[in-house]
Amino acid sequence: MANSEEAVIKKRTDKVKNWLRNKNHIILLVILILAIFLRWHYFVQTNTQPLWYDEGDYLSTAKSWAYNIPYDLNEHRPPLFQFLAALAFMLNLGENFIRLFLVLLPSVILVLCVYYLGKEMFDEKIALIASFFMAVSWTLLFWTTRVQPDFFSLSFSVLSFLFMWKYWKNEKTKFAVYAGIFAALGFHFKVSGLLVPIIFMVFIFIKDRFLGFKNKNYYYFAISFLLVLVPYFIWSKLTFGTSTAFRSGYSNAIVNVSPFAWKALAYFKILTDNITFILFIIGLVLALKFVLYLDVLVKDRKKCIEADLFAVLSLIIIWAFYIFYIRGIEDRWVFLGLPFIFFLVGRASMFIYNFVKKYNKGITAAIVIALILFGGYLQYKQADPLIKSKSTTYLPVKQAALWMKDNSISGDKILTISTTQTFYYAERQILLYSEINESDFLPFIDKEKPKFLEVSVFEAHPSWINDWINSNGDRLKIVQAYFADIQKKQPVLIIYEINY
After folding, report:
1. At what angle do helices 274-287 and 338-356 cross, to 10 degrees?
2. 476-483 sheet: strands from edge to edge
């Protein structure tokens, strides 16, 4: 028995040693260590920072489920992240556990997923370059300090890309099924995960044209995708009365005839930096070479299994979705495009190396590595001050909510515009008054009997609120206030106790 155990241990040890003999694996390990170090460094600095609105919504939903406190759910958000957070609260694991295991850990796993996708689509060197930039990306570092489901969703989406690419190369049914499962899991964390099957459908039409309808494996992908979505459909129907509640509100930009969000194009530059952006443009130009042989792609569908074509197509679809449909943009909304941006950065880096190395291989390698490292350093330099400067935003909202929790009892209600954060910290029922008319406000108060009214500069308030407060001074008593200055002359948040 002992000999058997020793043999197993030796076999595993040899396997690790053989893995480490590959210098690319050592580089990958260093990149992962760097990713962990940076994320842990900022976790230590920000794990007590106040929540922003979206963070508050995710965690308020979780607390509502965990502690059975009434809270209005946001129909736009799939529930799996909130469900996992609710389990953490029910097990008394707390917010830091959520930050570590539901945000930081998936952020690190994402770096590894991008490596494997890049290795499958391009080659190992491009994969390493892309994973390095994923490890140090300013926007990924920043949002790793915020409680949100993006990294879960993006990791599953990247895995879906990986397995579908494996299917296109090997045509094994299991890969198509895995791709469907992971694409659906990506949606369970964030609606933007639906862009993954859309990208697949467009690419399949380019690659297979109408022959795609005869490929049974694509139907296996669709079936596995839909089956994994069934729990969401059931939950959505029971909760909101419709199986596709996430659609509500996403067409508002079109209905309201909002202008196209051409500013989204600037995010190719915003998400990179001067050096990385230049490399991205070079990589994009190189990738567009497929335009030169479109006639070949039309005639030979196997030639369409082209990584450059898929990368460019993915970026076009992702950005078109936010330019023409959502008609708005934030950096985290286009996270799905980051792996492809960094693949093209890696593509350009290797092109420069291969083109110049004939003159001096060693110096060329040193220059390219220096460019990559300096580009990574610029990402870090952009992330560091941003994370630190935003770490105290909404602090008075957090302090006020904690004060109201300490000075109220279960069952008390709070009137506020900062609904999500106040609910999370105060653990009291919240009443939103931003859409109430002034004439209806006092009858609303007399009916609901809230204990506190909160007014602040942190959210847009009704234009009439200050006049109403001045006219109803006999019903209100200032019990707490927070200020922007030490002299306490510039209030940013005031809590009124309501008299009955």
Report:
1. 80
2. 429-432, 413-416, 452-456, 491-498, 476-483
